[in-house]
Amino acid sequence: MKIERLELFLCRLPLVQFFETSFGRSYEREFILARIEGEGHEGWGEAVAEGHPYYSGETTETVWHVITQFLAPLVVGREFAHPRDVFPALKRVRTHNMAKAVLEMAAWDLYATGQGQPLSAVLGGTRTRIASGVSIGIQDSLDQLVEKVDRERAAGYQRIKIKIKPGWDLDAVERVRARFGNIPLMVDANAAYQLSDAAHLAKLDPYDLMMIEQPLDYDDVMDHVTLQRAIGTPICLDESIHTVRIGRDAIAAGACRIINIKPGRVGGHQQSIELHDLCAAHNIPVWHGGMLESGIGRAHNIHLASLPNFRLPGDIAASKRYYVPDLIEPAIDIAADGTIAVPTEPGIGVRVMRDRVEKATERHLVIDADGHR
Fold it and tell me: Do residues 59 and 51 touch, judged by C-beta distance below 8 A?
């Protein structure tokens, strides 16, 4: 597999509806796409960094800078025996996992396409359909929250996740439980609480939640150990787990009982596979998180979520919840039973609509094997 050419696209798409977390409210998404060429085939990847540094220190501008100045020379013009070799080739650059992941994941798409196989097959996936959950942001009122949950349940989603923050937590959970009974329900704090809030968070225990995701700081492991001992609700770590090594340490310390895998956060598919396998060896279930991806990143996520230890419904929802039209055809949709089909065509298995990409593009760059731009 030789990477002969790299294209980068800085894109912007409006969201169908605003999405609010403890970081703030978003009405659109800014993101970077990478397209690589080699031996007559192409591969696409999507960087999950946003325009702001609130979820991660990486932004679209840092991703663009790091790829164009440091990562592209390490991959463009090079031949790789397998896409699993791409991440190690980028080791010289420290951190910047989201910048690395978009190139690495595009390489997996390129490789699978060249092999004539769906991406799930080369990743080691075992499922033909994945269970889909939905993430509901912070709303303007509890009535609005209940209306949204009702709508998503009617659409078939197998699990509901609601975003929480101080002042929007206990009442929100109580209303959802009172209205919908014992539905599979979890909450996501996006690091909005402190260890001193342990007694308050313990008040969530009677509501039989699947988990509370990332309640404490994004760079913390050990305070989560203390918190998990103080509450009955399982803790799931997200932002804290940006390497396989940190995942290993968190499991050993007892900081969590569940881990959310986002390939952009950990550096791509190979690192995700290694984290998946580590968790499986310790009987820690994993599920696939989401970053409001377009259909390109969403297709990658579906293939990865077909691996066997993704035992819980993830945040991979239908395209139409976020973008109309999406950048791909066919659009990703959910069946009545709350599952999504794993594409069976080679690579990510969907058609990237180049005209839609170009319409959404605000900046474009091509880098060839000679370094010309």
Answer: yes
